[in-house]
Specification:
single chain, Phosphoribosyl-aminoimidazole Synthetase, Chain A, domain 2, 60s Ribosomal Protein L30, Chain: A, globular, alpha+beta, 7-stranded mixed beta sheet, 2 domains, 5-stranded mixed beta sheet
Length: about 325
C-alpha cells in the first residue's frame, strides 16, 4: 500500500494510510460508517464450517473497532470445473448461519470463476464516535489483554500434514467459529484505549502495528500467553506455516527477545492466525473489570499478557 498514491481525507475519515482494521467514513447524523473486507482459501475440509470461519473472521474487524455490523456482501472465487456447485452452496450457507446469528442480512455479493477456491465477506457496520476504538491509541501504563488462545496457523498446518488428532481439530475449529461479539461488547462497556484483532500477522505483527501507530513500546510475558493444546509440541517439530516464519522475520527488527525465549517459542508468538481474538490495550485501573466482563461473557480467554510503556529502543520486548 505504501507505493500507492495517497488519498486526500479529512480528519474524520480513515483509509489504508493507517493500520486500522477497517475503513471509517462519517455520516451526516454524526455516526461513523465502518467497512472491511476479508477472504481466504479453505483451511478446513468441511465447506459449511469453512463458510462459518470466513464469516466470523470478517466480522472481527468490525468488532475490533467497537462497531455494530449492519449487513454483509459475499465475495468468492470458485473452480466450477473442479468442484460441484453444491460445495459453494454449503460455503454460502455456512456464512449465512453466522450472519443470521448476529442478526444481519447478506444483501448480495460477487463470485468469479477461479482456479483456487476463496470465500469471504464485505462487512458494513456503524459506530458512535464515543464508542469507536482504534489500534493506534494505546497509552503508556495500559495493560494488554488477549481474548482467544493462539496457534491456529500451526494447528491448521498440522491438519494439512495429517498430524493433528481429533482433539486438536475440534479445539481449533471451535476457536475459529467463535465470534468476537461478546468480547467487543465487554470492551465497549468498560472503555478501552485501543484494540485490534489478531489475524494473519500474528500476535507480534498486530502488536507491532499498535505500538508503531501509538508511538509506544510493549512488554509481553510469554508464560502468560494462552495457546491451543498441542501447539508447543508441533512448533518444536517445525510444524509451522510459511506465513508464520515470514511474520517473525518481519517483526525481528523491532522486537527484543529474552534469552530464555527459544526460536520455536518466537514462532508461536508470530503464528499467523485465522479468526483470532481481540488484543485490547486498556488502562490499568480498568483491567480487572475488563477481565471480569470477558469471563462473564464466556470469552475463550481473558489473558493479561503484558503492558504498554513509553517508546524505547525496541517496540516489543518479550520475556
Amino acid at each position: 500500500m505504501s507505493a500507492l498514491n495517497s488519498v486526500t481525507l479529512d480528519n474524520s475519515q480513515i483509509g489504508y494510510e493507517s493500520f486500522d482494521d477497517a475503513a471509517i467514513y462519517p455520516l451526516p447524523d454524526g455516526n461513523l460508517l465502518i467497512q472491511s473486507v476479508d477472504f481466504f482459501t479453505p483451511i478446513v475440509d468441511d465447506p459449511f464450517v469453512y463458510g462459518q470461519i470466513a464469516a466470523v473472521n470478517a466480522l472481527s474487524d468490525i468488532y475490533a473497532m467497537g462497531a455494530t455490523p449492519l449487513f454483509a456482501l459475499n465475495i468468492a472465487g470458485f473452480p466450477k470445473d473442479q468442484l460441484p456447485l453444491s460445495v459453494m452452496t454449503e460455503i454460502l450457507n455456512g456464512g449465512l448461519s453466522v450472519t443470521e446469528k448476529v442478526g444481519i442480512p447478506i444483501l448480495g455479493g460477487h463470485t468469479i470463476k477461479d482456479k483456487e477456491l476463496k470465500y469471504g465477506l464485505v462487512i458494513t457496520g456503524i459506530a458512535k464516535k464515543e464508542n469507536l476504538v482504534r489500534n493506534n491509541t494505546a497509552k503508556p501504563g495500559d495493560v494488554l489483554i488477549l481474548t482467544k488462545p493462539l496457534g491456529t496457523g500451526i494447528i491448521s498446518t498440522a491438519i494439512k500434514r495429517e498430524l493433528a488428532d481429533v482433539n486438536m481439530i475440534s479445539s481449533v475449529t471451535e476457536l475459529m467459529v467463535f465470534l468476537n461479539k461478546s468480547a467487543a461488547e465487554a470492551m465497549t462497556a468498560v472503555g478501552v484505549s485501543a484494540c485490534t484483532d489478531v489475524t494473519g500477522f500474528g500476535l507480534l505483527g498486530h502488536l507491532l502495528e499498535m505500538c508503531e501507530g501509538s508511538d509506544v513500546s510493549a512488554v509481553i510475558e510469554f508464560d502468560r500467553c494462552p495457546f491451543l493444546e498441542g501447539v508447543f509440541e508441533l512448533a518444536q517439530k517445525d510444524v509451522v506455516p510459511g506465513g508464520t516464519k515470514s511474520n517473525l522475520t518481519h517483526v525481528n527488527r523491532s522486537t527484543s527477545f529474552s534469552d530464555r525465549i527459544l526460536p520455536f517459542q518466537q514462532l508461536m508468538l508470530a503464528d499467523a492466525q485465522t479468526s483470532g481474538g481481540l488484543l485490547i490495550s486498556v488502562p490499568a485501573e480498568k483491567s480487572d473489570l475488563l477481565v471480569t466482563e470477558l469471563m462473564e461473557k464466556q470469552s475463550l480467554a481473558a489473558a493479561v499478557i503484558g503492558k504498554v510503556y513509553n517508546p524505547a529502543e525496541f517496540r516489543i520486548y518479550v520475556k
